[in-house]
Amino acid sequence: MSKYWSTAVKNLVPYVPGEQPKDKKYIKLNTNESPYPPSPRVLEAIKNAANSDLRLYPDPEFHELRETVATYYGISKEEVYAGNGSDELLAFAFQAFFDPGKKILFPDITYSFYPVYCKLYNLDYETVALNEEFSVPINEFLRENGGIVISNPNAPTAKYISIDEIKTIVEYNKDRVVIIDEAYIDFGGDSAVKLIKDYKNLLVVQTMSKSRCLAGLRLGLVMGSSELIDAIIRIKNSFNSYPVDRLALAGAAEAIRDEEYFTETVAKIVNTREWVALRLKELGFEVLDSKANFLFISHSKISAEAIFNHLRENGILVRFFKKPRIDNYLRVSVGTDSDMEALVKALEKLLW
Ligand code: PMP
Prior knowledge:
The protein is an alpha/beta fold. Helices cover 36% and strands 14% of the residues. The mean pLDDT is 97.
């Protein structure tokens, strides 16, 4: 705390990201990054963009990338926009669509950046308790509110709600904006992008950090009716004209075009996820059904904190949230088969 800080800064409660340790080489299963490199075509596109044009500002409207994404999803360019990671687009969306006074609704166990944005923009919110088995109680979102945010699949539980359930929520809340954060949708879910033509109040946020293996590039996407996208553009152009640089624009467009590499890497991760889930169950873990690139697990005999510490000592990082309801759970990102074999081995050492 410093006397030089504004009142707003004094009141902030910043989000704490998973660690990126420097002390030694860990098997990193703590931040849901892809264990696979970006597609060779993407790396080539980025290298080609590293030329003398870097002296020029990038396209502030991201035309080529937006056209590529629009073609991929069968929507119009006016219905898509990009940002410096989906975190930035979520921050823009909270500011663009929510007003102080009316309560924003999101689950009690979800991406912990949502309450941080509320605090940043002075927004009121109410959390909706997930059911006992961590599923989203759809009916609890059918009431008066100031806007809704749902991560689907949810983080950190990995659980997924169906398009029909989303439709029910979006339909009931036609007078306000419903944000669906699809950071993990490509690992087995059905995207709500197909609903945006019918629902002007639906905003879908996605990222290239997970399924497109590009967390280091910082590229997020947002899809919705042109009137919602216009609001995002107004915020972006009141904040930073160029949040997405030339290298990111080139790499991101190529990542969308290289469907083959995308399908292959996603399939590998899903395949690994499924055998690891089975193996963990055999070791006595409760493993929640996952449609994401991570598993949410708990053991009845050894505490999550003890497992977390044991894994860390064995060079494996996972995520432990010391929070109500989930303080006996661990979130484990799906790595390569060999990463996950090392995880299972380390767990066997502890449990056997
Ligand atoms: N939403 C959810 C649910 C996430 O887990 C993350 C990654 N931490 C993000 C959004 C942000 O992703 P990025 O800013 O890398 O696009």
